[in-house]
Amino acid sequence: MSATHPAQPVSPTVVIRPTKGWAALRLNEIWEYRELLFFLAWRDVKIRYKQTALGAAWAVLQPLLTMVVFTIFFGGLAKVGSDGLPYPIFSYTGLLPWTLFSQALSLSSASLVTSSNLIKKVYFPRIVIPMAAVLSGVIDFAVSLVALFGLMAYYKIWPSLLVIWIPAIFLLSLAASLGAGLWLATLNVEYRDVRYVVPFLVQIWLFVTPVIYPASKVTAKLAEHGLPGWIYGLNPMAGVVEGFRWALLGRTPFPAQLLAMSVLVTLVMLVTGSFYLRRMEATFADIV
Amino acid sequence: MSRLAIRVKDLGKQYTLGRSRASYRTLRETLMEAVARPFERVKVGRRGKRPPAETIWALRDVSFEVGDGEAVGVIGRNGAGKSTLLKILSRITMPTQGRAEIHGRVGSLLEVGTGFHPELTGRENTYLNGAILGMRNREIDKRFDDIVQFAELEKFVDTPVKHYSSGMYMRLAFAVAAHLETEILLIDEVLAVGDLAFQKRCLGKMEEVAAAGRTVLFVSHNMTAVSALCGRAIWVESGTLGADGPADEVTGRYLQALASGDFQFVNSEHGLKIESVTLWNGAGERTQFFSPGDDLCVQIAFEAEKPLTGVYVRLLVESIQGSCFAANMLLDGQRPDALEGRGVLACRFKSLPLLPQSYTVKMAVVGPDAREPIVRVQEVASFTVNAQAEDYGFSGEFFHRFVAHATSVVVPYEWIMPDGTVKPVFVKDGLPVPPRERRAALGVGAPGEVKR
Fold it and tell me: Which secondary-structure segment (H or E) carries A104?
């Protein structure tokens, strides 16, 4: 057996000693473990729809059926308004980034605890685990995006050039999910209460996100009380959902304030979440 | 020693027991503590300090160096701290004190098949497991055929591993691990799996690794393997370094210590000292080797500074499969009136219904309230059962292949075939009840026979 490690520097030296408090993020190490990140995400995708009759069709059915329910009750009965768009299109475009977010949040918050066997037996930067959980939702997102294009064709709504912004907004929604996911996953290792908080949190979060109703309703209400509209952007998903609609459908005004605020809040969550996880990860193997 | 691969200096790991014994806390507890803390400071002034949380040093003041290309065996009883040491060196858990330096890329095998998913195929699991162990994608590409060949699973690579037999599963898991090519390998008893033939091949592979000049730290209970693979051995005893030297010498001393039953334990708070725990067979001989149907007498020699009344003793017999059986005073209600002065407490397990495997005996002593630990559950002795299939009246052709990881305890049973014929599986010699005459020959009162 000859050892060849072209990717490795010659004999890296590792010093192991007790550390306390905040630690550096070591982003280069995460990069080094990118293959593991990929494999873990791929495993999650691969086994998600095993032994299901409909398989990956669930990725489309979940938001699609929700859209139907929303259209009947909110679009039809409650008449919540949809910025002049057909309500099915309106809610489905909102549901896509929302489903990505809510699924990523549920999966990543539980991820560290469910991977306890890995954490106890192998070393790697632990942040890879919630990251993989978030990434595993990307395929679902892509599949349901294709379905959205079908729906748009049916309503004869053609995407404008603004679609070039979709990847950026998509990344923002991933980052927002990861930011919240990192916090919840780390808290969950020590406090299993998180398990009960997350479903509730996701439910509440849906109501404060402009999926069912347009953001314009909220910002208008805020203005009535003399409050600036960007307050709504404290919920990073508000910017993501409105931004996604804007970029994809090109029929709503550019939500500049909401998006800027979303980016800011997301960055704060992501950075603090990463540092929090890094601080706690030394004890994971002992308490998970 | 040309160059160092591993340098460990004053390494220690402390675990907290007691207050946060629960593996995780609830938010409420933390909030309550946070609220209570300022008040506590006031109280401390009045009533002295709050009792410190109970802690245990799983590892303490361990220092050693391993040269580049050296193969070192790490031996010691279960719970002595071997695995903690490996976990610290693998960076899975953080030391409480001291430091360790590792020069080179580390591969740690604390378990084989980590991350295997039953729904994925052999091929998929190989890539996944490889990535988890730190292999690069192209490294796995390059060695994939070797891995599959080593595991003898060419025909099944694209079958989900949930359809594998446990033997096939372990073969694949080990094969992936065996092809991990790092400069330093940390290995924790991964060879205690699979059938004998496969274990041999694993050992062969390990020999190859050691001979190839890579640094190996090898934790094992298999002294023969340690002597064969390693030039040097480290003996970890109760979290400290018991001995460090040539493998033959250290393993020899370790085996001697095991056989002499020199498990010792002192609980100064209760003034109880366990002087030795020894195992005796039905013929009244002290031994570590038993036959199925034989009696196992566990003798605990103690010295109590002051009379200790109403304590409960528990003895557990375990195999690598888990608990087999136990003698538990908390259940049976028998307990010594008092432990006083020097004496012997013994327990005789009658006619062992065990398969040929290795077993450990664990002991625990709790106070009269059935809670207060006097001797925490720990391994106090170990023994091996030697037997052939015929000894149980078995005639299965795969006996040898599967017995190592079969359920350890056998009771007499019979099959009722579809045609109505009854096939009693006679456990030979009337196991688990030994022949009357043999029992008569055993005599009574083990403590009386103690030779000390």
Answer: helix A87-114
Which residue of A13, A47, A191 is in closest CB contact with B25? Answer: A191
In the β-sheet with B215-219, what is the strand arrangement from edge to edge? B106-109, B184-188, B215-219, B71-75, B232-237, B240-246
Q: pLDDT 10s digit of each residue in chain A, 288 long? A: 344 444 444 567 888 888 777 777 788 888 889 999 999 999 988 888 877 777 778 888 888 899 999 988 988 888 787 888 889 999 999 999 999 999 999 999 999 999 998 999 889 999 999 999 999 989 889 989 888 888 888 988 888 888 889 999 999 999 999 999 999 999 999 888 899 999 999 999 999 999 999 888 888 888 888 888 888 989 999 999 999 999 988 888 888 888 999 999 999 999 999 999 998 988 888 887
Does the model's pTM come out above 0.80?
no
**ipTM score of the complex?**
0.84
Residues of A in contact with B111 (CB under 8 A): 121
Residue of B nearest to A48 (CA): B119
Fold (topology level) of B261-388+437-449: Coagulation Factor XIII; Chain A, domain 1 (2.70.50)
Angle between helices A87-114 and A138-154 (to 10 degrees): 170
Superfamily of segment(s) B57-258: P-loop containing nucleotide triphosphate hydrolases (3.40.50.300)
What is the Cα–Cα distance from A185 to A195, expressed in whole angstroms? 9
- Which chain B residues are closer than 8 Å to A38 by Cβ? 131
What domain range is A217 assigned to? 37-287
Q: Do domains B57-258 and B261-388+437-449 have the same CATH topology?
A: no
- Is residue A28 one of the residues assigned to a domain? no
Number of structural domains in chain A: 1
Contact A16 B100 (CB under 8 A): yes
In chain A, which residues have their Cβ closer than 8 Å to the Cβ of B137? 35
